[in-house]
Structure of Enoyl-CoA hydratase/carnithine racemase:
Amino acid sequence: MQHVNVILETRGSAAWLRLNRPTELNALSRDMVLELGEALECIRRDEKLRVVVLTGSGRAFCAGADLKAVQAGLSKERSEDGDFLDAVAEVFQILRDFPKPVIGGLNGVTVAGGLELAMCCDVLIAAESAKIGDAHANFGVFPGAGGAAVLPSRIGLPNAKYLLFSGRSLPARDWLRMGLVQEVVADDALEARLDTFASDLADKSPLVLSRMKAVANASVDMSQAEALVWELSVLRDHLTSNDAAEGLAAFSEKRKPVFAGN
């Protein structure tokens, strides 16, 4: 499948998705969002691909929505297949619920819709020079894909309000301190670190990682008691899987497990 706005590359068991509008700081256009959705579907169907890396070309991860596209969408009636905002909402939700781990590699500018896209990833690793912020307030635009709805649960309500209201962008290490970013590395080490981490996850049981992600994501909207009941139920089911048997056998035999994903 040939795409120009999102480049899909496979490296072993990892699928690399690279946003590819560098002259526009990888701003989200309708075509880019649709290509991202198509690429994710290809990855979902390919059982050989066990982890996703999402990063950007050039000096930005993503500078948010292409405001020209937003303006154009506001001036036209919605088509039968929805508008730009519908497309963003749909693809971002696919990414949040994706059954395989998604690692975000924040290689540079990450603002507005770019921050919202980053928050759809499971783990974020940022380059030292990356500047990250919401920025919607700077343009009188309301966030629509998680800026106000998701950010407070990630970094705490006071921090989220400070960044939403001020529109400031902060260095990656500030976001590491607040808990949104999990690692910050030197700019020239980012790609290698993403590659190493993706390879590490790809060696683990895809079944257990998928189940962990599903329970962890859902637990945010559950009481602790409800989440614990579901976790135990998933564990009982998982213990009947081939991957669980392989892991226990490898532990007993003092060897590295080889997981089939079932």
